[in-house]
C-alpha cells in the first residue's frame, strides 16, 4: 500500500525558478528519503532525513520534515532543465526494518 | 566502487513462463530488497533478504520468490507470468536491518510479458 502522497502530481516551471514538492505520510517513521527517477530508469538517492531532524540541505536541495504533521517538502532551488524527472518520497516506518513505502511521485518538468 | 547492479536490463517473456532477475548489492551492503514499479506508479515492496533469509514480504503472491547467496547477491524469480507482471523491477541494497541507512537502487530490469 502507498503511505506517501506527493503533491502536486505534476509541476512545470522555467529554468532558474524554484520547485517545491510535498509529501505526506501516515505512520511513525525512522527516516524519510527522497529519490529522483529519469524516464523509468533506476532511482537516484537525493537525501535522507531522520525523524529527529527538521531540515537538511544538500547542494541546491532543501528538505524539511514535520513529524507532527507527518509531512515533508523538497525544495530545488535555481532549477535546471537537467532536473526534469520524477521525484519520489519514501518512508522507512518505525516497525518496518528498512522497508521503504513510496508515494506516487511528482513529475517535474523544467523548461529551458 | 560499483554501485548496485542488475541483470538483465530488459526482458521479454510470454504468459505462463518463468523469469529470474539478478542483483548484486553495493560493496559493504548485506541487505537486498526488491521492488516492482508499474508504469506511472511508485515502487511497491516485494520482499527483503538478509543473511540469506527472507525477512519481510509485501503483498505479492507466492509466484514471486527469491534467494540470497553468501556473497549477498540476490535473485528474484517469478513463475507463471501474467500480463500484469510487466513492470520495472528494482533492487535496493543497504547495510543491516536497522532501518536507519540509505537504500541504494540499481538501474532496474524492465520486464515485458506478452
What does this structure look like?
- The complex is a heterodimer of chains A (112) and B (114).
- With 112 residues, chain A is mainly beta.
- Chain A has no helices and eleven strands.
- In chain A, strands 2, 4, 5, 9, 10 and 11 form a six-stranded mixed sheet that branches. Chain A has a five-stranded antiparallel sheet with strand order 1-3-8-7-6, with no helix packed on it.
- In chain A, strand 6 (55-58) and strand 7 form a beta hairpin.
- The radius of gyration of chain A is 13 Å and the shape is globular.
- With 114 residues, chain B is mainly β.
- In chain B, 0% of the residues lie in helices and 50% in strands.
- Chain B is built from no helices and eleven strands.
- In chain B, strands 2, 4, 5, 6, 9, 10 and 11 form a seven-stranded mixed sheet that branches. A four-stranded antiparallel sheet of chain B has the order 1-3-8-7, with no helix packed on it.
- In chain B, a hairpin with a 2-residue loop joins strand 5 (44-50) and strand 6.
- Chain B is globular.
- The mean pLDDT of chain B is 93.
- Chain A binds chain B through residues 1-2, 4, 30-31, 33, 35, 40-45, 48, 50, 88, 90, 92-94, 96-105, and chain B through 4, 31, 33, 35, 37, 39, 41-45, 48, 55-56, 58-59, 88, 90, 92, 94, 96-108, 110.
Q: What would the keywords be for this entry?
A:
heterodimer, A: about 110 residues, mainly beta, six-stranded mixed sheet, five-stranded antiparallel sheet, 11 strands, B: about 110 residues, four-stranded antiparallel sheet
Computed CA radius of gyration of chain B, to the nearest angstrom: 13 Å
In oligomeric terms, what are we looking at? Answer: heterodimer
The coarse overall form of chain B would be: globular
Q: Give the integer mean of the pLDDT values of chain A.
A: 91
Largest β-sheet summary of chain A: 6 strands, mixed
Total count of helical runs of at least 4 residues of chain A: 0
**Percent of residues of chain B in helical segments?**
under 10%
First-residue to last-residue Cα separation of chain A: 36 Å
Write down how many β-strands of chain A occur, each being a DSSP E stretch of 2 or more residues. Answer: 11
Termini separation of chain B comes to 37 Å
- Name the poorly predicted regions of chain B: none
| Percent in strands of chain B | over 45%
Order of helices and strands of chain A: EEEEEEEEEEE
Largest β-sheet summary of chain B: 7 strands, mixed
Strand content of chain A: over 45%
Alpha carbon gyration radius of chain A: 13 Å
Q: Tell the overall outline of chain A.
A: globular
- Class by alpha and beta content of chain B: mainly beta
Helix-strand pattern of chain B: EEEEEEEEEEE
Mean pLDDT of chain B: 93
Amino acid at each position: 500500500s502507498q503511505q506517501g502522497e506527493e503533491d502536486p502530481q505534476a509541476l512545470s516551471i522555467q529554468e532558474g525558478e524554484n520547485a517545491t514538492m510535498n509529501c505526506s505520510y501516515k505512520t511513525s517513521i525512522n527516516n524519510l528519503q527522497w529519490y529522483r527517477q529519469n524516464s523509468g530508469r533506476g532511482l537516484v538517492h537525493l537525501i535522507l532525513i531522520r525523524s529527529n531532524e527538521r531540515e537538511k540541505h544538500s547542494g541546491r536541495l532543501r528538505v524539511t520534515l514535520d513529524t507532527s504533521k507527518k509531512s515533508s517538502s523538497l525544495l530545488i532551488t535555481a532549477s535546471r532543465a537537467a532536473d526534469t524527472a520524477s521525484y519520489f518520497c519514501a518512508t522507512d516506518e518505525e516497525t518496518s526494518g528498512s522497508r521503504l513505502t513510496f508515494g506516487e511521485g511528482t513529475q517535474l518538468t523544467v523548461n529551458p | 566502487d560499483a554501485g548496485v547492479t542488475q541483470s538483465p536490463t530488459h526482458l521479454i517473456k510470454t504468459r505462463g513462463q518463468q523469469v529470474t532477475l539478478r542483483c548484486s548489492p553495493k560493496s559493504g551492503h548485506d541487505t537486498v530488497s526488491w521492488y516492482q514499479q508499474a508504469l506511472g506508479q511508485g515502487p511497491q515492496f516485494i520482499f527483503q533478504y538478509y543473511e540469506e533469509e527472507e525477512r519481510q514480504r509485501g503483498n505479492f503472491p507466492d509466484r514471486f520468490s527469491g534467494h540470497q547467496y553468501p556473497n549477498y547477491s540476490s535473485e528474484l524469480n517469478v513463475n507463471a507470468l501474467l500480463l500484469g507482471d510487466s513492470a520495472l523491477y528494482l533492487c535496493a541494497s543497504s547495510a543491516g536491518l536497522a532501518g536507519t541507512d540509505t537504500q541504494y537502487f540499481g538501474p532496474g530490469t524492465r520486464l515485458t510479458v506478452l
